[in-house]
């Protein structure tokens, strides 16, 4: 049987590792953010701890497979992932968040059985994929004619006009635009754009163009 401190360590690690991935998703205002990822990771860890507890408690009475409960977590996490996937015209949003939830569930299962190195290494890989690989995606040739962007802008009169004017000079059409307040004290807002672009358009150039506009603090491809 596991000692009490070992159980607490595994649950705390689940909170930390799940929270690290959740912070990245929360920073992009995804449907499943910090709390959701922590709950999934901690819950998965508890399931594996429960499996080990049941196995050690009843192994003298019957043959039991401690992995069976964990297997149900892997299949059951699908309903949460499905809730984060949204279809917007010809675009599917939320697949990356759904995949991160599934990965967090697996990390929790690994922590539950004490596979610390595997859980920590997987957390680092997931964070690298989410934070760093997204910066290179803009340079991958893409035959689709739409592009989704998030801009952190200075929410002052004329700012949207500057963005629209810069896009207009490049013959880029805005298909959809959404503005959300991000920081009321600093007057910063999150501007979500869906653009129609040419199939041979260099997406990296668009990001560079928008980054140079006065009052634009950050540009991210979604």
Percent range of helical residues: 55-70%
> What class do helices, strands and sheet pairing give?
alpha+beta
Oligomer state equals single chain
Number of strands: 6
Radius of gyration: 22 Å
* Total count of domains: 2
Could you give the order of strands across the largest sheet? 4-5-3-6
Overall pLDDT confidence: 84
Q: Which strand-content bin applies to the residues?
A: 15-25%
Unreliable sequence segments: none
* Approximate shape: elongated
Order of helices and strands: HHHHEEHHEHEEHE
Offer a quick outline of the entry.
This protein is an alpha+beta fold and 222 residues long. It has two domains: 4-137, no CATH class; 146-221, Alpha-Beta Plaits (2-Layer Sandwich). The chain has helices spanning 4-27, 34-58, 68-76, 78-84, 95-112, 116-136, 159-169, 203-211; strands at residues 86-88, 91-93, 146-154, 173-183, 188-196, 216-221.
Descriptive report:
The protein has 222 residues and is α+β, with helices and mostly antiparallel strands. It folds into two domains: 4-137, no CATH class; 146-221, ACT domain (Alpha-Beta Plaits, 2-Layer Sandwich), CATH 3.30.70.260. Helix content is 56%, strand content 18%. It is built from eight helices and six strands; from the N terminus they run ααααββααβαββαβ. The protein has helices at residues 4-27, 34-58, 68-76, 78-84, 95-112, 116-136, 159-169, 203-211, and strands spanning 86-88, 91-93, 146-154, 173-183, 188-196, 216-221. The strands form two sheets. The chain has a four-stranded antiparallel β-sheet, with helices on one face. Strands 1-2 form a two-stranded antiparallel ribbon. A hairpin with a 4-residue loop joins strand 4 (173-183) and strand 5. Helix 1 (4-27) packs antiparallel against helix 2 (34-58), helix 2 packs antiparallel against helix 3 (68-76) and helix 2 runs parallel beside helix 5. The longest helix has 25 residues, at 34-58. It is elongated and about 75 Å long.
């Amino acid at each position: 049987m596991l000692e009490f401190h070992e159980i607490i360590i595994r649950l705390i690690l689940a909170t930390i590792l799940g929270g690290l991935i959740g912070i990245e998703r929360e920073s992009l205002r995804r449907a499943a953010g910090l709390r959701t990822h922590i709950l999934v990771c901690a819950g998965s860890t508890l399931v594996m701890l429960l499996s080990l507890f049941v196995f050690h408690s009843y192994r003298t009475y019957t043959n039991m497979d401690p992995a069976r409960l964990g297997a149900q977590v892997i299949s059951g996490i699908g309903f949460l992932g499905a809730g984060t996937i949204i279809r917007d015209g010809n675009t599917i949003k939320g697949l990356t968040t759904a995949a991160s939830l599934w990965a967090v569930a697996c990390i929790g299962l690994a922590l539950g059985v004490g596979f610390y190195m595997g859980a920590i290494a997987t957390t680092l890989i997931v964070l690298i994929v989410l934070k760093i690989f997204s910066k290179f995606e803009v340079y991958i040739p893409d035959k689709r004619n739409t592009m989704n962007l998030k801009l952190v802008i200075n929410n002052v009169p004329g700012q949207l006009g500057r963005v629209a004017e810069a896009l207009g000079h490049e013959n880029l059409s805005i298909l959809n635009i959404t503005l959300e307040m991000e920081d009321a004290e600093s007057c910063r807002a999150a501007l979500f754009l869906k653009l129609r672009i040419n199939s041979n358009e260099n997406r990296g150039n668009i990001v560079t163009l928008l980054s140079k506009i006065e009052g634009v603090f950050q540009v991210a491809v979604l």
